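WARN  no MSA supplied for this record, continuing single-sequence
INFO  ligand: zinc ion
INFO  echoing inputs
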Amino acid sequence: MKQKDSLTYFKRGGITLFTDEKLGKRIRKFYPENLEVTSWETVEREFKKLLEEPIDSKEALMVFMEKFSEFYSIIAQISTEKYIKMTCYSDKPENHEDYNKFFSEIQAPSSKYEFLINKKFYDSPYRKELGKEYDHMNKIISRKIEAFCEKNIPLDAKENKLSSKYGEIISKLSTEFLGKERTITQLSVYLKDPDRTVRQQAWEKINGLIAGKRDELEELFDSLMEVRVEKAKNLGFSNYRDYKHFTKERFDYTPEDLYEFHSSVEKAVLPILKELFETKRQKLGIDTLRPWDTAADEDGITLKPYKTNDEFVDNAIKILHKVKPEFGKNLELMKNTGFLDLENRKGKAPGGYNTQLPEYGGSFIFMNAVGIHANVITLLHESGHAMHGFSCKHIPYNVYKRYPSEVAELASMSMELITMDYLDEYYKDRVDIKKAKKEGLMSTLNILPWAMTVDAFQQWIYTTNHTAGQRDAYFAGLMDRFNYGENYSGYEKEKALRWLRQLHIFEVPFYYIEYAMAQLGAIAVFKNYKENGEKAIEQYHNALKLGYSKPIPEIYRTAGIKFDFSYEYIKELVGFIKNEIDKL
Ligand SMILES: [Zn+2]
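INFO  complex generated
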């Protein structure tokens, strides 16, 4: 059956590397191809039909779950197409209207039915007869039902409204710098400047802007905390940390395990980072490393990975092909189908993302590339997410395709590292390759102390009664505990207020430690690849193919690695990275 491509916005020229095929829409199993899902009336009717379906056996129960997944994919596909169109052509107001309308009229009300469907599964007597292979589904869905609390619905809305104020406050901040009005994001660019005075001034401007909003931000945070604590109480929890742990479906570790993670990073990672930053201090030729020096470029080389957009994409395809031919082919399929919109262009929304296109069993990557090294890293990272999507297309249940960040970011962060040895597709000069590799390896370690600081801070905030002043003081203490050589003397206030710039603490509480877990996992995958070559790629690919059908430790085990926060394990991994840096 011939399928019509609905998403060929970006016809690409260029040469064929490994395949000239395109992705096509998959044939539906339960619903007709012409099913109309653009009015709530018909969508609701379909949901009601699903809910009324008789279930008289465990087999029928699983068919019911599969049918629901297909229906949900049909809706998600349309919503994703509208989202892509909106971000690619963000200057057209009708695209925003179209997406927002579909979201508020169809997608948002669908979530209520998704809950009812899950409830039907949960309440079914046949659920207990399902085999071991459905244990994980049982666990996930049961938690969703048990975490539901009617009284929290208006509080969720209140929390959303409050947390959106954070972005409003921060995005409005700007000040004059070097003769121009600049936002915090624009000022941050100068933290890499070779001129130390420029860096210091930019850093002071950023911190001055935040300090000016200190009281407003602290008050906002207090209001957020109040709502969050109430939500926790409504579900019977004595504190918000434990509530959040429960509702975030963290099955495989406890908040206490994370304390072990904090101290393992403190003991195993800080000494190595101190050494690496001491070398940096010497290279910069300065007497002491200030907070405005850590991001500074020490050699003044600007990497220029490619000239044309075709080169940008084709080199990534070649690199992925070297890791595993199937990966390269998948990225080329995306290119051929028009599922890549990579170059910065007037009218595009900012940022970058990878999104699944469920009816295609493929992915779409959006970026704003301007020809710098960071764009290459982003493309390889997003390609990791895309390969995850391809690897899970055989899974018939939605619940197994929504992987948590500990799993999703393992796919993408590992891809950044296992492609590292093939960067010669972009760089011909050995000095450039060395710089690119060093940056990549260093960044795997840098993220760890900060992730621990953010987590330890939130654990304390939500389990201790405190004032705003005590909160800042506690944060300053954590900054000292996880310091790897930055000298803050004379800037104690800036140090204590640094947390006010971390969006997650305001908008997505407790979402951060997952990055550190996935980063450790990625280092382990990379180490496995260095030691075992192709076998390690097979293990990585097999882990991706599991989606979220198994608990996190089992997925990590399948990838040939451990889900482990112990000092010994972390020490082994960071030692490996240090060794890779020394070999450069
Ligand atoms: Zn990612």
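The chain has 23 helices and five strands.
INFO  checksum written, moving to next record
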